Amino acid sequence: MTETSLDPEDAKIVTLARSARARADAEEGAAVRDETGRTYAACTVDLPSLKISALRLAVAMAAASGATALEAAALVTGAEPGLPAADDLAAVRDLGPAAPVLLAGPDGRLVDTLTP
Are 12 and 104 in contact (CB under 8 A)? Predict the structure, then answer.
């Protein structure tokens, strides 16, 4: 399944996650969509004094902007496909207990969809 065969709103967050990853030349990019349709994109931050995953940062940005629920999340990674870290999924579930997490490769090709 390609990015274009996704629901348009889901394809949008995959595209945003890909863009965040590419912009910073990061290993991972993520994006989330809140209950009002607003989107938040982030990439992994790996500084000496601050390390945070792309998915947790996207959730934090949504929460800091006043989002009270998440409809969906996307994670794009160049690493071998696998499950996001437990802490990453827990952050998504804090605001979106029923939100699907779309896992995609750097080309936007959907690898898996995690549902609760």
Answer: no
Looking at the 3D structure of the chain, how many domains does it have? 1
- pTM (two decimals): 0.92
- Is the model's pLDDT at 52 over the cut of 50? yes
pLDDT tens-place string over residues 4-14: 478 999 999 99
Report DSSP letters for the chain, one per residue: --GGGS-HHHHHHHHHHHHHHHHHT-SEEEEEEETTS-EEEEE-EE-SS-EE-HHHHHHHHHHHTT---EEEEEEEESSPS-PPPHHHHHHHHHH-TT--EEEE-TT--EEEEE--
| Chain-centroid distance, C-alpha 112 | 13
For the domain that residue 11 is a member of, what is the CATH number?
3.40.140.10
Structural domain of residue 109, as residue ranges?
Answer: 3-114
From the list 50, 33, 15, 23, the residue with the least C-alpha distance to 95 is 33
pLDDT at position 1 over 60: no
